[in-house]
Amino acid sequence: MKETSAAKKKRARAIFLRLHKAYPEVRCALHFSTPWELLVTTVLSAQCTDKLVNRVSPVLFKKYPSIRAFAFADLERIEKIIRSTGFYRNKTKNILGAAKTVLERFGGEVPARMEDLITIPGVGRKTANVILGNAFGIPGIAVDTHMIRINRLLGLTRHADPVKIEFDLMKLVPERNWTLYSHLIIHHGRVRCFARRPDCRRCEIRDLCPSADKTSY
Questions:
Q1: Is the separation of the CB atoms in 111 and 117 below 8 Å?
Q2: How far apart are CA 96 and CA 91, in angstroms?
Q3: How far apart, in whole angstroms, are the C-alpha atoms of residue 194 and residue 4?
Q4: Is the pLDDT of residue 217 over 80?
Q5: pLDDT computed for residue 213 by the predictor
Q6: What is the Rg, in whole angstroms, of the alpha carbon atoms belonging to the chain?
Q7: Which of 150, 132, 214, 136 is nearest to 186 (CA)?
Q8: pLDDT on residue 201
Q9: Is the N or C terminus of the chain more exposed, i.e. has fewer CB atoms within 10 Å?
Q10: Where are the alpha helices (DSSP H) in the chain?
Q11: Region 115-127 average pLDDT
């Protein structure tokens, strides 16, 4: 029998509460002190672990302590610093482009609106929501690969497109919980619901997941 919207909302709330209880200390895994630093570290985190980004970023921010410093930085020097994060040429291009855009169009301040953020090189809706939620306290659902995979397994969306998933979840999760919900699901994907072999036996939300214990998804 098809799950009603009300039942799905109730289940989504139960999933949130269960994961929040299981992982009470979960927060943004990237280290940052300003919205600009979060923008840069989020760009660096693409196809890279947060742990590695957190090792590389202090070196980068010490060398280039301001947005202006990034805007006029030597491309090859930044490439050398961030090389280990992968896709370093494209990341460097985006970071330098972002610095110039923030400097020239936004007066040197990272904007706190989605419509402005997504005009910055390297910033899509996922990165924008990470910045809004964690640097400005504006709720946002950041859809990465963990969010795509796990929310599909949970039956909270049938889509594969990140934007469609974001809007599906906005209907199910209370706005005040959007940012934390993203952190909880992403963390769950890292410690329990592994892509290759989910640990369903020990899963905290096993009884709330229609895909639990299935050998193929």
A1: yes
A2: 9
A3: 28
A4: no
A5: 84
A6: 18
A7: 150
A8: 95
A9: N
A10: 5-22, 35-44, 50-63, 67-71, 75-82, 88-105, 114-117, 125-135, 145-153, 162-172, 178-191
A11: 97
**What residues are labeled active site?**
126, 144
Contacts 24+ apart (CB under 8 A), 5-14: 5/171, 8/155, 8/156, 8/172, 9/171, 9/172, 11/156, 11/208, 12/156, 12/169, 12/172, 12/173, 13/173, 13/174, 14/205, 14/208
Q: Structure tokens of 216?
A: 């193929």
Token digits of residue 60: 């980068």
Is the distance from CB of 106 to CB of 67 less than 8 angstroms? no
Give the whole-angstrom CA distance, residue 20 versus residue 38: 23
Among all chains, which residue has been given the structure tokens 């923030």? 102
Quote the CA–CA distance of 71 and 30 in Å, as a whole number. 22
Q: How far apart are the first and last CA of the chain?
A: 19
